[in-house]
Amino acid sequence: MDNRPIGFFDSGVGGLTCIPALQKNLPNERVVFYGDTARTPYGSKSIDTIKKFSNQIADYLVSHNVKMIVIACNTISATCLDSLRRRHPDIPIIGVIEPIANRIAAEEKEEVRIGVIATKVTVASGAYSNIITSKNKKVKIFSKACPAFVPLIEEGIIDNEIMDLTIKYYLDDFIIDNNLEKIVLGCTHYPYLKKNFGRLYPDIKLLNPSEEVINEVERILREKDMLADENNSAMHLCYASDTSENFRNMIDAVFDEAQDVKIEFKKFQD
pLDDT for 216-228, tens place per residue? Predict the structure, then answer.
């Protein structure tokens, strides 16, 4: 047993979409979350900049004695996973891309056309396509960068006409032209738009890496006998580089009211 917390980090509030699945599957685990809300979005930044920011945050989580780090960001997972594992070889570090990509490759038995919507950096990396098609040639992957989604979500602009029009701008032709059956939400911010997608495209099945990554977290913790025990009374810690009202609202929406959650401000030098 190991009652140390699990570290999660993201470019902003998107990584919080992993937490409901953690609470459902592993309710005894505690979280140290860092959202880089002052420097979001990462998806249009250079890879060198993304690596610099990610190293800062990973080092900070390690200073909190976390037992595992979850890169709750597709952009960082696509560009920094290997380098972060080399930087901190004694801590299990999990990205959000590998678990869902491996599941898709293993489960699809017939030819299928799947869209991946993500940031510019994630799309350019080809991470989803490379993993999936190397293991299953029947899966056809089509990718689309949707850079306006993250800034709108970070501002809390979700359940309204502005967001619906933005979604339709990116996806109407993308879905039709490629005859898509399923779409991977290739950014941890995008699950906040599930209701929008369901309303606009009811026939498209959504695949959520934010949920699948928790299955990998559980597998590794069980394998290493690192699960927290039921008497774990530690509080959750949530840090942001800019403690906006939207960040606080998202924290309130994600964490159980009965749990102790402490929010603090921590900004790094660029």
Answer: 999 999 999 999 9
Q: What is the CA radius of gyration of the chain?
A: 18
Tell me the residue type at 195.
K
d(CA 221, CA 199): 37
Cβ neighbours of 222 (radius 10 Å): 11
Which residues does 16 contact at the CB level (< 8 Å), separation at least 6? 10, 33, 35, 72, 188, 250, 251, 254
pLDDT in tens, 20-55: 999 999 999 999 999 999 999 999 999 999 999 999
Per the listing, tokens 């401000």 go with: 265
Q: Give CA separation, 263 vs 35, 99, 139, 181, 196, in Å.
A: 11, 29, 42, 40, 29
Written as one letter, the residue type at 9 is F
Phi, psi of 164 (to 5 degrees): -60, -45
**Which of 180, 151, 175 has the alpha carbon at shortest distance from 163?**
151
The tokens describing 13, both together, are 């509030």
CB 45 within 8 A of CB 12: no
Amino acid at 113: R
Distance CA 64, CA 7 (A): 8
Q: Are 9 and 31 in contact (CB under 8 A)?
A: no
Residue 89 has pLDDT above 90, yes or no: yes
Residues forming the active site: 73, 187
Instruction: Report d(CA 31, CA 242) in Å as an integer.
Output: 19
Residue 94: its H or E element: strand 93-95
Tokens 């290997």 found at: 82
